[in-house]
Amino acid sequence: MTYKTKKTITFAILAALTIGVGTAPTALAGDGTVEAYYWQADPATCYNTGSLDNMTVDGSTGNGADVETELEVTVGTYNAEMNQITIIGNTWWNCNFSTHFDVASEDMADSNDLASEYSHFTSTAMSQSEIRFNTDQNWGTSTNSCNSSSNLDIEWVMNHEFGHGIGLKHHVHSTPNSVMHDECDSIIANLQTVDDTAIDIHYN
Amino acid sequence: MKMKKKSLSLVAISVVAIAMVGFISMDFSPETKSTEMNVLMKAQTPFDLAEQADYVIEGTVIDMKVVLVDMPKERDADRIFTEVTLSVDADIMNNYGEDTITFAIFGGQVGELTFSANVSPEFTIGEKVLVYIGENKENYTYQGRNYVLGHSQGVLEIKDNGTLVDKFRETVYDKELVISKSQQIKGPL
Q: Is B108 left (phi over 0), alpha (psi -120 to 50) or beta?
């Protein structure tokens, strides 16, 4: 084999390797769903303790009480204190997520909406979770209530919304048994067995 | 040998060309391709919704159109709505007074962008429905488009047997009872 032939073959191999590297990122699932993009993380690292220091409510009780929440966590900036979140005793995560969480309030006009969570996906991964509390509702802390007339318990609802933020969907059951129940109910105050199972499935 | 060299060169050039096409088609952008909106709602019955509705319309679905709305949103996917048009068969509560009504629901797909909402109602062309409509307030949807109160809860499928089906809650109501109670709340037309 001549030097030129060898050179050509080497070049062809390199080019072929380039094709391999150049494969486009995984597209959305064929059925259009995004379930394939739950994060992968070691569940063992998702159960530590910490505190949600930055979440506050302004103390108003009237209609339109402002939820002054501000929680900005990115992989580039969060530290040992901030990458642990506990909501009323439930530690949701302490994982090396590349997802950016953003919590704020918003006037949602439809007073039937309590809160919304927006999961944003790039073509390869979930990139951001936005949690919004409806300022048309009355909010409070430790109210143990899903009734806005006596102030909705923001920690209960935060529990539920963080569930979406880590990739869980609504759990519809005639007998509510999940923090992801699709209606505000005292069941969302705590992580339930079915939630632990769901998290294990998604993160294993 | 000359032919062999030529073939090898051609193979190499082809491979390089394919590699370049692959490289160019790579998606390097971290842009949002899809958004999932998860809403925690209050559970509402049709009677609850009647107290809040601006209109209750009995109608037939005649058109659905997905639109990418020109509005200030951080992400393109969040600007996708579906406009649903009904031919108005009857004004059940308050007089809308038009032959058709159009309202917007969250979600849809435009090209590779997808916006899905776990609570958005689903419609099919020709379907007969009773819908609880809220007039657009504070630009809840966009550009003056009405919305469905309580998302999926605000749409009841009308069955031939005189019942209304809440597909979201899997609950069946008597149509005449729902209509009469709705009219009691805000008075007959």
A: left
| Tokens matching residue B52 | 């809040």
Predicted pLDDT at A62 = 34
Asked whether A128 and A159 are in contact (CB, 8 A), the reply is no
| Cβ density class B140-153: b for 16+ within 10 Å, e for less | bbbeebbbbbbbbb
State which H helix or E strand residue A114 sits in. strand A113-121
Residue B92 CB: number of other CB atoms within 10 A?
A: 25
- The per-residue pLDDT for range A101-155, each reduced to its tens digit, is 666 677 776 788 899 988 888 776 667 778 888 877 887 777 888 887 778 887 7
Nearest CB among B22, B29, B32 relative to A120 is that of B32
Contact A107, A134 (CB under 8 A): yes
Pick the CATH number of B34-186 from 1.10.10.10, 3.30.1490.100, 3.40.50.2300, 2.40.50.120: 2.40.50.120
B19 and A120 in contact by Cβ < 8 A?
Answer: no
What pLDDT, in 10s, does the model give residues B14-50? Answer: 666 665 555 444 444 457 688 889 999 888 899 999 9
Q: Using a CB-CB distance cutoff of 8 angstroms, which residues of chain A are in contact with residue B140?
A: 108-110
Residue B15 to residue A116, Cβ atoms within 8 A: no
Q: Are A64 and A151 in contact (CB under 8 A)?
A: no
Nearest Cα of chain A lies from the Cα of B169 at a distance, in angstroms, of 10
